[in-house]
Amino acid sequence: MTADALPSRSVQLAPSILSCDFARLGEELQAIGSADWAHVDVMDGAFVPNISFGLPILSAARRASPLFMDVHLMIESPERYLKAFADAGADGLTVHVESTKHIHRAVQQIRELGKKAGVTLNPGTPLDAVKPVLADVDLVLIMSVNPGFGGQKFIPESLERVRTVRRWLDELGSAAVLQVDGGVTPANARAVADAGATCLVAGSAVYGPDGAQAGLRRLREALAVGEET
Ligand code: DX5
Ligand code: ZN
């Protein structure tokens, strides 16, 4: 899917390029060309213990692929960099409630930049923290691992958090994307979708030893189970 529109299928896949081979970034993006979004994990070594990459990699990814660039900012005070990431090619920008004193302002700034605004929170943060901006966002991301690293194990309690936010969005009549990120695999993808998620991020489950196309296919097959009923 290109940057023109938000995806419309019931459950979208957003492979995280964090797990790709950066020496072959262009090819790795080509390999996920059939996915809905590219998920771009930016880490600053302060908000999370790890440093991933920043603006130059996003801009290279933007040049290499027409996919919707779904940028997950794991950085302190993200409002300092929203415009820079928008200029570098982000289509959507997701900010953590824990990373800013002004989550409402950050969401407004993303919208003023003409980008899709997302809000997220760590697994240990009470869900209520997203409520004040729920009606203003295009995406809510439930983190199902502690942010910072790919390849971690899905936290099972996340399913209940997805169900709760699904209910809140439905009560609001919101069409916001409900995204889940961390430890998503073919073994749990169907359960995550059944809990109400509409977009699944997957890093290590996509960029595995047999390549991203095979990884994507396995996730799609897992999601298809039970769809006919
Ligand atoms: C974790 C990142 C995730 C990560 C997911 O901090 O936000 O997007 O890349 O990787 P997997 O799917 O391997 O858990
Ligand atoms: Zn992420």
UniProtKB/TrEMBL annotation:
InterPro entries: Aldolase_TIM (IPR013785), Ribul_P_3_epim (IPR026019), Ribul_P_3_epim-like (IPR000056), RibuloseP-bd_barrel (IPR011060). Its cofactor is Fe(2+); Co(2+); a divalent metal cation; Mn(2+). Its EC number is 5.1.3.1. A divalent metal cation binds at H39, D41, H72, D181. Binds 1 divalent metal cation per subunit. It catalyses: D-ribulose 5-phosphate = D-xylulose 5-phosphate. This is Ribulose-phosphate 3-epimerase. It comes from Deinococcus taklimakanensis.
